[in-house]
Specification:
Blueprint (H helix, E strand, L loop, with lengths): L20 E5 L4 H8 L6 E6 L2 H13 L5 E5 L12 E7 L8 H11 E12 L5 E3 L3 H16 L10 H8 L2 E13 L1 H18 L6 H14 L5 E12 L1
Parallel strand pairs: 1-2, 1-4, 2-3, 4-5
Antiparallel strand pairs: 5-8, 6-8, 7-8
Length: 241
C-alpha cells in the first residue's frame, strides 16, 4: 500500500558491505530484492516468499534486468529454509504485522543470523497512519479492515510493539524510529480495503457478517468520494544478534 517497496530499503543500504549474504524475508517481488542486491555489489540477496507466482515474476524481472546478485526461494517466515548462522543481514518488510506468532518469526531470524549479524525490520503501525480527510466512511472502513487483519491473526499496529518484541527475542543494540511515507494513493488505499473487505465477506461463515458488511459499504463510499492524502507510518528497526 505504499509508493513502492524499494523506498523502504533506504535505511538498510548503509548496513551493507561487499560479500554479505542478505535475506529478504517475505519479499514482495523483484523491486525490493533487486534494490538490495545491486546496492553494494557483490552483496548476494536471497528473496524468500510464500507466493510461487510472485516469485516466478520476480525471477523473470531480475533476469530481464540482468541482476545476477539475487535469487529467490519459497519459504515461510516462521520456518526459514536457511542454515543456522549462515547470513549477515535479515531484512523483513511488512512481515511481523501479518504473523500470528511474531516471536516465533524473530526466533527464526535470530537462528539464521551469524553472530554479530544485523536484523532490519520495516513494520507498519496503522494506529499512527494519517489519512486526510478522515470522514466517517473512511474511519469505519479502516476499523473494519483492521478487524479483518486481527481475525487473521495479524496486528495492524505491530510497529508500536516491534522494539519490545525484538528485545525479548534476544537481540541487542536496538535502534528504532518511525518514518512516515507520503505519496500513497488515497483512492488506491480505499480500493484495496474495499477488495479485502469484500473477500472477507465472501469467506465469512454463512456468507454474512454485519460488522464487515457495514465496513464494506463505507469502503465503497470512500472509493467514490473525493481525493485525499495518506501518510503511512512504518517503524524502522535495526538490531544485532
Amino acid at each position: 500500500m505504499s509508493e513502492g517497496h524499494a523506498v523502504h530499503t533506504g535505511f538498510v543500504v548503509p548496513l551493507l558491505r561487499p560479500g554479505m549474504r542478505v535475506l529478504d524475508v517475505g519479499c514482495r517481488g523483484a523491486v525490493t530484492t533487486a534494490s538490495l542486491g545491486t546496492a553494494t555489489h557483490p552483496v548476494h540477496v536471497l528473496g524468500l516468499g510464500g507466493d510461487p507466482e510472485e516469485l516466478r515474476r520476480a525471477r523473470r524481472a531480475n533476469e530481464r534486468a540482468a541482476v545476477s546478485t539475487t535469487s529467490f526461494a519459497s519459504s515461510r517466515a516462521r520456518a526459514l529454509a536457511v542454515r543456522s548462522e549462515s547470513v549477515d543481514v535479515v531484512y523483513a518488510h511488512g512481515v511481523l504485522d501479518r504473523e500470528p506468532e511474531p516471536m516465533v518469526v524473530l526466533a527464526e531470524f535470530l537462528r539464521v543470523l551469524r553472530p554479530g549479524g544485523l536484523l532490519a525490520l520495516s513494520t507498519p503501525d496503522w494506529s499512527r497512519t494519517r489519512v486526510k480527510p478522515k470522514t466517517a466512511n473512511v474511519d469505519a472502513a479502516l476499523r473494519g479492515w483492521n478487524l479483518v487483519r486481527r481475525r487473521e491473526g495479524g496486528d495492524p499496529a505491530a510497529g508500536r510493539h516491534v522494539e519490545d518484541w525484538v528485545r525479548r527475542a534476544g537481540f541487542r543494540d536496538i535502534r528504532s524510529r518511525p518514518r512516515f511515507h507520503s505519496g500513497n494513493d488515497y483512492r488506491g488505499l480505499a480500493l484495496t480495503i474495499e477488495n479485502e473487505l469484500a473477500g472477507a465477506l465472501r469467506d465469512a461463515e454463512n456468507g454474512m457478517d454485519p460488522q464487515l458488511a457495514s465496513a464494506a459499504r463505507s469502503a465503497w463510499m470512500w472509493v467514490r468520494g473525493g481525493q485525499g492524502e495518506v501518510s503511512e507510518c512504518w517503524v524502522e528497526t535495526v538490531a544485532a544478534r
